[in-house]
Specification:
The relative contact order is 0.15. The protein has 386 residues and is an alpha+beta fold. It has helices spanning 10-15, 36-47, 60-71, 80-89, 94-109, 125-128, 348-361, 379-382; strands at 4-5, 8-9, 129-133, 138-141, 146-151, 157-161, 164-175, 184-191, 199-205, 214-220, 229-232, 242-248, 252-257, 260-266, 282-289, 309-323, 362-365. The chain contains 8 helices and 17 strands. The radius of gyration is 24 Å and the shape is globular.
Length: 386
Amino acid sequence: MSRAVGGVPVGLAFEALGVVGSPLPPIFMTSGGESESDRKKVWDGLRATKRGSGNETRPWWIYQTLYKMASSSAFPHLSPLSLALFLSRRRREMASYIFVLSLGLLFVVSGTMAATPRKPVDVPFGRNYVPTWAFDHIKYFNGESEIQLSLDNSTGTGFQSKGSYLFGHFSMQIKMVPGDSAGTVTAFYLSSQNSEHDEIDFEFLGNRSGQPYILQTNVFTGGKGDREQRIYLWFDPTKQYHSYSVLWNLYQIVFFVDDIPIRVFKNSKDLGVKFPFNQPMKIYSSLWNADDWATRGGLEKTDWSKAPFVASYKSFHVDGCEASVEAKFCATQGTRWWDQKDFQDLDSFQYRRLRWVRQRFTIYNYCTDRKRYPTMSPECKRDRDI
């Protein structure tokens, strides 16, 4: 099957390396949201590189391919403009750079994305969820395809899944509380029902206006947590919806933000670390006041004059093995897509993206906290958290 990026077949990118082609076309209109001025700068930069080591002219669509690579979310650290400027400074070495970038493109689209979860299915709230408390603080829109949770000085609110699940893929799109959200917590998590419970947490910690949100993740196994990791997001989560999802199977738990893995928790039972495998979990979300700890360790309190605080939700995707609370195994174990070999580990491309998050956005990691944990937890090395 022929693979393509931006409508350009990968094979043609290689064929183009030695082919005499047509000159660059007018400014290519992309879907990346760049201004007309930015697009002109990009193509001016690319136009300056169109000559190879001889006098041949490279076909325009190879530059389009490179531009698409830079515009793609697959390269979150690379902007189209920076690519153009880089290429314009390296015009004599263009042929070799095209070769390297084409190899990278082929690598991206030729199977290394096999472990990417399936695209979530948008369904209305009532398909999978029910309110759990303060029903009057939940508003519904567009046939329950969107909802809003609100928090004021009387109460927050929340909801939970109708079923319990033992493994699966769970996703939700959320737009966080805008403005001054200090003291508030928007949570999206899975949890079992007993005292030695398992839990998989996304917690979004509000902040003062102008300061970034903090995303805290945690994993509880057998009632033990204390595995916090905190990152800054590389976007403003209050401006538009973003996807937050969990892939959970017998081999690993992966936290995703917009399909970028931000954390992995591998099954390390062989190292003496418990792993959630026999306690079905419900899915929960809530908006609540936690100004005793959420923002700067409780130093910043909730400003109730800014209430109500509102978080918005849509795309209530659940693809899991539904099981009774007492179940110890999944009846369809080994037959679902998220059980297959491709999802037993991240691929190399996903590990590079995880490393990008680790290096640029991580602000706390229990694996590197020697004051709190003089001895590093055994799972940290396997999870590539150090």
